[in-house]
Amino acid sequence: MTVRLTVAQALLRFLSAQYTERDGRRRRLIAATWGIFGHGNVAGIGQALLESGPERMPFLQGRNEQAMVHAAVGYARQSGRLSTHAVTTSIGPGATNLVTGAALATVNRLPVLLLPGDTFATRPADPVLQQLEVPWAGDVSVNDTLRPVSRHFDRISRPEALIPAALQAVRVLTDPVQTGAVTLALPQDVQAEAYDWPEEFFADRVWRVRRPRPDRDELAEAAEAVRGAARPLLVAGGGIRHSAAGAALAEFAEATGIPVAVTQAGKGSLAHDHPAGVGAIGHTGTATADSLAREADLVIAAGTRLTDFTTASATLFRDPGVRFLGLNLDPYDAHKLAAKALVCDARTGLEELRDALAGHRVDPAYEAAYQDGTRQWERLVDRAWQTPDEDAVPTQAQALGLLDSLVDPSDILINAAGSLPGDLHRLWRPRSADQYHVEYGYSCMGYEIPAAIGVALAAPGRPVWALVGDGTYLMNPTELVTAVQEGIPIKVVILDNHGYASIGGLSRAVGGEGFGTAYRFRGPDGAYDGEPLPVDLALNAASLGMVVISARTIGDLRKALAEARGSDRPTCVYAQTRTPDTVSGPPPAQAWWDVPVAETATRSSAALAREEYDRQAAQRRRHL
Predict the structure, then answer these.
(1) 192 plus 327 within the same structural domain
(2) Residue 566, CB half-sphere, CA atoms under 13 Å: how many?
(3) Which helix (H) or strand (E) holds 181?
(4) Containing domain of residue 314, as a range?
């Protein structure tokens, strides 16, 4: 039996019947479709969405194509990668606006389905509006920019090609190793073309998300390596969260006494007050975790990609005999730093490694020392959180401290870029496994607000906070309109420091003297060192429909955050922040990050910065 539908209608019907299943729990894979319509998708996907109705495929209206992808990614992460959204756009700029969001999804290994319109497959009019002409390649369109940032890409040039293409797309989306952005480019004429589809194409289909067990020999070697280590350290990455392996991690740490440090993506996978928890690692890490990393003779890299922030640009692991054990589902990551590989699911791997180590525990003196170091670090956090003067302008850390005193395990915090990720990684104490949502794989300014919408859709009823600086807010505030339209009560906190404070600080550290990083008028010498710009971000947010609460002092901010948390409408808290002093401010970076400094320069700031760069770079090493 067949059913006659357009390609767009068939695709939506197929997607509505796809499910994931893990640990006995079944979820719909594509829970909704985001869209902005233009001539490249309005008569195809747009008409199909109208005909399908919200029961088969719910629709969400976006304002910016990149932001729609961010919202879908936020939804996917909050859903444990077991459910996501699709995103449809027109051809031309609508399609190319997807590239940044696609890169973010792929870097972070989070599933999202992209359905950009494409130019005519049959070429009745050539070129069409917004078509990029490539004289030496007639089959190239702007959608080809999505190839390098997609884990799977296909162009549906004939109706019958949709069947294998759609199956492959879903296979990749549900594969925990390969998942990321998946792109099906849809020529606008093919979208509207009818075809007789076999009914079995639309039958419910369940894609089981695997939990591969470790190889027996690899497991034995891993256990031997752990037993032979005097100073082991486990680094927990995002794979722990994706695998829902938090309980297994806690049990492993309790059984062995091995300390656990967390990456940005892994923070929250172990309770902040767990006896084995030593906090964040790397450039934005705690003194305790980074000290342990420098002295470790075995590093168990569990579910982490070992990026430069985690390894302090290959300067952190300094013990001459340090070795690595890569516990990862992806062989590519498991073998990094010449590690012994334990290729498996994070949860099953930790459970079986714990059993293989039965009776083994680290030296009690080692355990007592790192626990004492953690207690000392927590006292520094308390100091940074302190707000002795209710009438003072808050620092950024004090603002986080006020929020810290307010939230409970139901709250979810979202951030991605600027100086906030560093403060959050070092200082924040997650109350639940999914409270800490910092996208730092791509560190994409503008992610926070749309991602908060996606998270709120995946976790209805929970307070969802988008924490942004003024620079990030100005990058991508448009989805505030979507939150207002849909009545999604996200809480947006804008901390205004009049510029790119994080990069300004980095610029000064590398001899750039903060050039081009302040939001100020030009001064007499032409630099941006005049008065702050008269930009009213609070008024801007209000003009987009948000409830806005402005705070000038610590006392004001305390009340504003509490009011926002209790609001059932999309609400924005706006506060200007001040630069902290070195005594009461948050602890500085505990490890290096490689940002090359000019090798020759006439300005003394750059020359001095180069001397420090050469000193730090000399400590870099290759692990073989």
Answers:
(1) no
(2) 6
(3) strand 181-187
(4) 216-375
